[in-house]
Amino acid sequence: MATGATSYLTIPIFHCCFLLWLCQARDTLKPGEDLREAETLISLNRVFELGFFSSGGTPSSSHYLGIWFKNDPNKKPVWVANREYPLLDSSGILSIRHDGNMEIRDRRGIPIIVNFGMLAPSSKTIATLLDSGNFLLKEGHKIVWQSFYYPSDTLLPGMKIGLFNLFTENNRSQYLVSWQSSSVPTTGSFALGLDKYNFTLVKVWHRDGFSRQIGFWDGKRLKFQFESSSHDHNFSYVSKPNEVYFSIQTEEKRSYSWFVLSSSGQIQEYKMMGQKILMENRSICENTTVSKATDCYIRTPYMCQNGETFSEIKGSMPDSAIVSDSVHLGLSDCEILCKDNCSCAAFASFRDDGTGCELYYGEKKVLLRFIGEGKRTIHVRGDTSTESGEQHNRRLLWLVVTPVLSLILPIIVALVCYLRWRNHRLKDLGLKRFQVQVGSYEAAVDQDIGGDKYGRKKDHDLPLLSFDCVATSTNNFSDENKLGEGGFGPVYKGTLLGNEIAVKRLSRQSSQGLEEFKNEVQLISKLQHRNLVRLFGCCIQREEKILIYEYMANKSLDSFLFDPTKKMLLDWKHRFSIIEGIAQGLLYLHKYSRCRIIHRDLKTSNILLDVDMNPKISDFGMARIFGDDEARAKTTRVVGTFGYMSPEYAVHGHFSIKSDVFSFGVIMLEILSGRKIVTFRHSDRFVNLLGYAWDLWKSGKGLEFMDPTLSNTCLSSQFMQCIQVGLLCVQERPGDRPSISDVISMLSHENTNLPAPKESAFYIRTSYSASSMQQTNSLNDVTVSDILGR
């Protein structure tokens, strides 16, 4: 009897506990309530869950508000509220504030409005999570805002992808946008949606401007270039006068399915089979079944000897690898950067979360020595197994050659002794010529170039210094003397005959070589101008290639301009002076030097500042000489730097003096705004720095483009004039851009009526989530051989 009584009591207690547990699982957030890090909202039938999560899975990682399937063991979010504004730590709180709008905040107290695109009309709102995965903000029965209006990387059944409120001021576009990496939900490299010019086409865009058609509406049904194995959903296409979109619907009594645009650009199909979630990648490349989606976007490089495929190895990158630590670059961006440049031998993600790029431009045989010395995944161009076999063969060859070398060692010793004696003679001669060179240069600068009115001066032979001499001047290239490192190699500070010098040493793993070295020696040694860096001498000995320059005490312009503390030293007077100085240096190159010279790699890191903050153009390794009757040239090897290249050069390989004018315009806009061309992204529109400047100038809000540190020192009229000149320089067509002499004239006459600039090149006014997606035929942020300054 006791056992039976116990069983009768157990059943009601169990039901009470179950009902109490259900009551605690809420699906709605009301005014005055908070949702904290350890709490979640759960939809009515326990399909979806909303709460906070961390990108790295640790308390110190960035935190976000997201929605995921309740029974997903990995809790991979299908929607993220604050993709561009991660929270600092686990102190996040979601609440409905006094005006009816949802906000997220952390311990910093900075509010992030979740429904910023559609604000609440009153304070009488509630937020509810539905079983469809849609998160609603409602005022009574009226929907104020919903998460389905702002998709992340996931297309759920019932979610619409397309264009809305067409031909009105409130037009809106909805796109899927990939994550930055598999663990970082920040806006990534790929977007999927309807083409804004041809509404029947479904495309995937890469943010550098390339796109790929993946489907189309044939008038009866939506067809895709990838095939789905699932028959559990139907694609629908709706076209009305004011909106056009497509969506999917899951058929009843079948498995639930949805699609994800991955960080690598793949289409991933997910299916829920009972309590299990299955995934399958879908290639979007034509006539293929298995392929990396990034292959669809990459232009074929010019005759890459090592092929266009990459092999994976485990190891570490050499110290000479070039790093771009921008969080806006994912692994697919790294592949495109490397694959589009034949000089790139390998790439890897810079961070553990898959963001940032590390690119290696040296020899593969050097890289393969690091196999097994680290746990990072390195993507190496070509077949690494063949390279490993070749290394083994070389080791066998060395075992045979070693005895032979021992026989000729006495001859080698005698030769070394002779060369040391010869080098001492060259050193003495070089030092004397170096001293003469420095003295003649100082005198020339005092006379504002020296020689005749065009700056022509009697040639001096460039001093050739011995390696021992240069090594001694830099304390044997000690780390204490190292100023920095770029694509050419490391740069050291040295002292020679009482003069401070900068020594640039070509790295054996450098992306540049003998051609660039000879180009710089032949060009810059013949040039003399107060706004050009002076080359004092060089060293060519054994495998060493070294250039000796005048020392610039304040390093490069970008080290000041993009540093939050040091930029305070660049008031308006200094910045305007720097702009004028760069223009004067360009004028000399384009018009008054011995021959017309196109620099081809102008950027803030190649503008050096002396002790008085006077600008000097440096790095002529990519420069080219033009004849007097030559207007433009074409090259099959496009070289330059991400963000600074003119469209005609980046796309077609055409370059002229107007290519340098374009780069100068980019530098001007960077100086005015204090923002970097390669990292700037507008908070709510996918627009680069040029497009942002154009938008503000066109709407009469140009002063909003000003670096805040200039507010107390800048003349508004002069600033607006500079923006207009900068926009004139970055116009799409070379013929529309002014010459550099015209630029100097515009800057010198404040009251001059300037022509109105046309739309900026590379101007893409795109929002993946809230604004209309538009794009020009130009490429955005083309990346080529050099990523960092040298």
From TrEMBL:
Domain of life: Eukaryota
DNA-binding found in the keyword field: no
Gene3D superfamilies for the chain: Bulb-type lectin domain, Phosphorylase Kinase, domain 1, Transferase(Phosphotransferase) domain 1
Domain Apple stretches: 304-383
Transmembrane feature ranges: 396-419
Catalytic activity: L-threonyl-[protein] + ATP = O-phospho-L-threonyl-[protein] + ADP + H(+); L-seryl-[protein] + ATP = O-phospho-L-seryl-[protein] + ADP + H(+)
Membrane topology, as annotated: Single-pass type I membrane protein
Recorded GO MF terms: ATP binding; carbohydrate binding; protein serine/threonine kinase activity
InterPro entries in alphabetical order: Bulb-type_lectin_dom (IPR001480), Bulb-type_lectin_dom_sf (IPR036426), Kinase-like_dom_sf (IPR011009), Pan_app (IPR003609), Prot_kinase_dom (IPR000719), Ser-Thr/Tyr_kinase_cat_dom (IPR001245), Ser/Thr_kinase_AS (IPR008271), SRK-like_kinase (IPR024171)
Sorted UniProt keywords: ATP-binding, Cell membrane, Disulfide bond, Glycoprotein, Kinase, Lectin, Membrane, Nucleotide-binding, Phosphoprotein, Receptor, Serine/threonine-protein kinase, Signal, Transferase, Transmembrane, Transmembrane helix
GO cellular component term, pick one: plasma membrane
Enzyme nomenclature, EC number: 2.7.11.1
Leader peptide range in chain numbering: 1-25
Keyword Coiled coil attached: no
Localization of this protein: Cell membrane
Domain Protein kinase, residue spans: 477-752
Domain Bulb-type lectin: 26-150
SMART domains: B_lectin, PAN_AP, S_TKc
Assigned protein family: Belongs to the protein kinase superfamily. Ser/Thr protein kinase family.
Name assigned to this protein: Receptor-like serine/threonine-protein kinase
Organism: Juglans regia (English walnut)
